[in-house]
Amino acid sequence: MTDPLIQGLLDAFATGYFRPQVEALGNYWGNFCGTDQVFDAGTPAADWVKAAFEGATK
Fold first, then answer.
1. Rounded Cα–Cα distance for residues 10 and 45 (Å)
2. What CA–CA distance (Å, rounded) separates 18 from 10?
3. Measuring CA to CA, which residue among 39, 38, 12 is closest to residue 52?
4. CB–CB of 13/7 below 8 Å?
5. Tens digit of each residue's pLDDT (9 = 90 or more) over 1-13
6. Could you tell me the pTM of the whole model?
7. Domain edges within the chain
């Protein structure tokens, strides 16, 4: 394999963790993956999305 991007993808598949792993996506994963606030805590979905968006774009 000579393409480093494809090799990175293959390495990720080999470890079973295939999400893109770049620093810029940290805000996305950290803000948009906690849906328990909506489903368990009763936070209105619109409020949760607004807060997640604000956290992801700071």
1. 35
2. 9
3. 38
4. no
5. 799 999 988 887 7
6. 0.54
7. 22-58
pLDDT tens digit string along 12-46? 778 775 566 677 777 787 788 878 888 888 899 99
Residues in the chain: 58
Judge whether 29 and 19 are in contact, CB under 8 Å.
Answer: yes
Token reading at 36: 């328990």
**How would DSSP label each residue in 14-42?**
HHT--S---GGGHHHHHHHS-THHHHTT-
Q: Which residue has the tokens 């209105």?
A: 44
Q: Could you tell me the two tokens for 25?
A: 């996506």
